[in-house]
Design brief:
By secondary structure, this protein is mostly helical. The chain has helices at residues 44-71, 76-107, 117-126, 138-142, 151-161, 166-188, 198-205, 212-216, 235-241, 243-247, 255-259, 261-268.
Length: 276
């Protein structure tokens, strides 16, 4: 009989160590790079991409705040209050956005998916050895997200918003920056307190960054909840409302369903609430 060809990161089924997925689960904290051509070593082009992206985002934010100041006739106090409100709301909705992205790439697509293929394969392969992310430097860890959330995206948004709506530009600048940084916050949630700077522990303790315990809940099979990885503030309402289960009614079987037929059955019965 002809042997079945093992699936690669380019194929459907390359998820979470499913039988025939092509993923091995190393023990003892050994790093496992699952995407062909990927490396844990930071490359100059990654540093350049990340540096240029954040410089661009800083420029968009500065321009937006300056335009807000002009619209407010130079009222610095009002501009400051408006800016802080926009930044806070963007932080909350960026957490929601990180959950939507995480849900999508964990459950659908593969390495051949246009634009997002490498991100999908990396997120799905992450479940084979979650600690691998802790071996990555900052730029190596976040640079892939500079593609969907980078300068071209912000240039388009800023152009559409125009100088009459600088708050829109500021909101999405913060939103895109947070989505890129979400992968670093994700990394911190896989590291011990002693392995990160004290200010990172403070961010986690105050709920500004996703904590270790809350994110650990996501890594329990079938990986069907706790998808938000910036602050995690949106996880409880999303999971208790069955938000992601409702999204699974789309005609395509999610990877969580493949791992847990009972989850699939409950969802199809309309039992959307995530069980504790």
């Amino acid at each position: 009989a002809e042997e079945a060809t093992p699936k690669s990161y380019l194929d459907d089924g390359f998820v979470f160590g499913l039988e025939g997925s092509g993923i091995e689960r190393p023990k003892g904290g050994e790093a496992n790079v699952v995407v062909e051509g990927d490396s844990l070593e930071t490359q100059p082009y990654q540093v350049a991409a990340v540096g240029a992206t954040f410089l661009g985002h800083a420029a968009f934010a500065t321009m937006a705040i300056s335009q807000m100041m002009n619209l407010n006739d130079g009222n610095a106090a009002l501009t400051s209050v408006e800016s802080l409100a926009i930044i806070a709301s963007s932080w909350v909705l960026a957490d929601l956005g990180s959950g939507l992205l995480h849900f999508g790439v964990d459950n659908y697509g593969n390495g051949r998916t246009p634009v997002m293929g490498s991100i999908i394969a990396a997120f799905q392969g992450h479940h084979s050895a979650p600690w691998t992310i802790t071996y990555r430097g900052f730029c190596n860890n976040v640079y892939k997200l500079c593609v969907p959330f980078g300068i071209p995206t912000m240039a388009l948004i800023s152009t559409l918003a125009g100088s009459e709506h600088p708050g829109v530009t500021l909101f999405f600048t913060v939103f895109c920056a947070m989505e890129i940084l979400s992968q670093e916050m994700h990394k911190w949630s896989h590291m011990r307190k002693s392995e990160v700077p004290s200010w990172v522990n403070w961010l986690q303790d105050t709920g500004l960054s996703i904590g270790r315990g809350p994110h650990a809940q996501h890594h329990l099979a079938p990986y069907d909840g706790n998808y938000c990885i910036i602050s995690g503030i949106c996880n409880e309402p999303l999971d208790k409302s069955g938000f992601f289960r409702r999204l699974e009614h789309n005609g395509v079987e999610s990877n969580a369903w493949k791992l847990d037929p009972e989850l699939r059955a409950r969802t199809l019965r309309g039992e959307y609430r995530l069980e504790a």
